Amino acid sequence: MGVDTDHDGGAAGFRSGFVCFVGRPNTGKSTLTNALVGQKIAITSNRPQTTRHVVRGIVHRPDAQLVVVDTPGLHRPRTLLGERLNDLVHETYAEVDLIGFCVPAGDKIGPGDRWILEQVRRSAPRTEILGIVTKIDAVGKAKVAEQLLALSELLGPESDVVPVSAQSGEQIEVLADVLTGKMEPGPAFYPDGEITDEPETTLMAELIREAALEGVREELPHSLAVVIEEIVEPGETAGASGAGSEDLLEVYAVMYVERESQKGIVIGRGGTRLRNVRRNARKQIEALLGTPIRLHLHVKVAKDWQRDPKKLSRLGF
Ligand SMILES: Nc1nc2c(ncn2[C@@H]2O[C@H](COP(=O)(O)OP(=O)(O)OP(=O)(O)O)[C@@H](O)[C@H]2O)c(=O)[nH]1
Ligand SMILES: [Mg+2]
Question: Could you give all domains of the chain from N- to C-terminal order, each with its CATH number?
Fold first, then answer.
């Protein structure tokens, strides 16, 4: 990450800084990150714990550069994976200039939110917290007002609160203005046009996982991990697989599940589910790369990987 001092942000009044979104799983942190960045850099789903690593999105404005750090939803960990994710989030708190505490407009503030606030205050006692009421399109105005009050009460008088809908775009600009106003004067951290520091292979693996999360049952989403094994340029020969490619970029990915029985769920009757996942993921990856690809998906079992330190590190955790 180079500091880009030649940026016209050298102009008087330019601000920059890091803000990290925290909250329970499924509160809309990744959708909000994408809305602020203006492009999809973090996958989203209606399953809790979709995000599994820290994703940085960059918001370029004439007057500021905001680095938005999306984090996995916090919860009391039940597996080694859960513990690792929580550790990651804790490291992030301590590194940012501002913490955006996300609560959906329609969810009652509860012990889970209080627990997260305690965690945040412990890791970053001096960092300002901004309350963000998300998903305001989903409820009426009265409910939004009620939630703003409740969140304000939870966070205390030092914290401002902002309502927003990442889905409709309502208040996104206002939120960006508020975030900018809270940043210190400083230069841009990333060059113009760069919207994330995620490697392309990570984005590709995430898009496959997102496609695979669509419509699966409760326990499976947590058991799913995706690894890009190989990318073969047109005209090249794949090393490991030995397969050749004439015309298209070939992407080889493995979808790991934890148990043999889950393989069948992912593949579906007669392979229909896997075919749909492959089609949806391919479209998304083609949009990302701007080029047609051929996607090869294999499903493998990595027994109980969420609890196995060796397998976790092999899968990138
Ligand atoms: N109605 C409505 N739904 C939203 C909004 N933002 C997000 N959602 C939905 O809420 C669900 C969760 O969104 P995510 O952005 O994946 O939530 P998250 O907080 O990143 O979740 P984790 O990564 O699991 O912690 C998805 O189904 C989204 O489509 C919004 O502004 N309005
Ligand atoms: Mg997320």
Answer: 8-185 (3.40.50.300), 200-314 (3.30.300.20)
